[in-house]
Amino acid sequence: MIRRVISFSVISFKNPFLLSKSRNMDEDKGKSMLWIFIVMGISLYIAYNWDNITLIKYLVGKVLDPTFGALLDWNIYFGFTIVIAFTSLALTLSQKYFSDQESLREIKEEQKYLQKEMKEYRDHPEKLLELQKKQFEIIPKSFHITMQPMIYTGIPVILLFRWFSDYLMPIFGNWWILFYMIGAVIFSMIFRKMFNVA
Q1: CA 91, CA 93: separation in Å to the nearest integer?
Q2: What is the Cα–Cα distance from 118 to 132, expressed in whole angstroms?
Q3: Tell me: the pLDDT tens digits for 133-147?
């Protein structure tokens, strides 16, 4: 009994939108996608109105100026690299613990199998078309699972980017975004391997 309660609480902590066996999968997918769109909408609203919402800008500055700001003041390049590594680690861990990793692995295996089959049947247009159709059916499932962590990370990431923009635009212009993206890709690849994220 205790083991069941513990495993259930871990599952619900990992992702509150994971479904119990008795629920309807489509209904819950719709609910989680609704939450994703709500978070995206709030994030875009904050990003667009950053200069008009002074309270949020003030509070974010109070939190990030003495932490990330101190790193950037210490050394702009090393500090920014450390910040990129930290945010990449946080996003990688959110992907691991807030998405259904088993389903993602199954989807990736199915995609590999379909690609292998498509290479074998490239001279048979009818079979190739059927395999491509199956591959396109997998995309929404994969998208849904990989987007679920955004429910938790969407708003913090937008707040961080808006703060970065205020802090780094006078120094680098828009080039800071390119530096961030390159660093994030590199660190994400490292952390995904380290933590075995699908």
Answers
A1: 5
A2: 8
A3: 888 888 888 887 888
